[in-house]
Each structure stands twice: as structure tokens, then as C-alpha cells.
Specification:
130 residues, alpha/beta, 8 strands
């Protein structure tokens, strides 16, 4: 949409250059948000939270959206089981697999829905509308 602003919080991921880094129109990069108040203002006024393979930020992204009552969509990827050793399913099992990660996210709120995107690789999208 024309005039739509998004906040892109990264530049490199693994071995490829993020295409958003080259697109300066309608993208706010973190260096433009130097003060905590600026970041809070952007986040408080966002209309939707989207995470495409957000890596370690997956849980925080979903929690933020749920806490603030914002609609969200997230395409989780890696589990990071060595980093997040305290993540547990309701059953008490550790979150160690991709399927367990999807279940863990869905267990956060009964209204979280699931869909499959039409592309190869990690293509499960979890989302909630408000």
C-alpha cells in the first residue's frame, strides 16, 4: 500500500543480504529509532505484527502481539532448543522440534490459527486476528 511504513529490524541473516536493506522507501531501519521512546511509539501504534522466520524473536513477537491485543502473523523457523531450554509444552515436554515450536505458540492462545503458505520450506503461518 502506498505510504505504508514498516519497521525492519535486521540487515543480514546467515549468508544472504536481506532485500529490505536495499529498499529505503517506506522502511524504517533501527538506526532511525535511536531512543527507547521512539521504539515504544512505533510499536504502540503499529496495526499488525508480522514475523517471517523471526528466529529467536518468535516467542517475543507473539507475546507482544497478544499482550497488546494486536493482530499478528508469524512464520516460525528454527527452534533454538539450546537457547530456549526453559520452553515447555503444557504436557511438560521441552520444545525441541519444529512441530513442538508450532504447538508451543498455539498453546499461548486458543484463538491462534494455523495455515500453510504455498511455498517450499518452512511454510506454516500462525496468526490471530483481533
Amino acid at each position: 500500500a502506498k505510504g505504508l511504513k514498516c519497521w525492519h529490524c535486521g540487515g543480514r541473516h546467515k549468508e544472504f543480504e536481506c532485500p529490505q536493506k536495499r529498499n529505503t522507501q517506506n522502511v524504517m531501519h533501527p538506526e532511525e529509532l535511536c531512543e527507547d521512546a521512539d521504539v515504544a511509539r512505533v510499536l504502540d501504534h503499529c496495526s499488525v505484527v508480522v514475523g517471517l522466520h523471526p528466529d529467536q524473536a518468535t516467542g517475543d513477537l507473539v507475546d507482544f502481539a497478544l499482550e497488546r491485543g494486536k493482530p499478528f502473523a508469524v512464520v516460525p523457523c528454527c527452534t533454538f532448543k539450546e537457547t530456549f531450554t526453559r520452553r515447555r509444552l503444557r504436557s511438560g515436554d521441552r520444545v525441541e522440534t519444529y512441530d513442538a515450536l508450532v504447538t508451543w505458540i498455539r498453546e499461548k492462545d486458543a484463538a491462534i490459527q494455523i495455515a500453510k503458505l504455498d511455498h517450499p520450506g518452512r511454510n506454516i503461518v500462525l496468526y490471530k486476528t483481533v
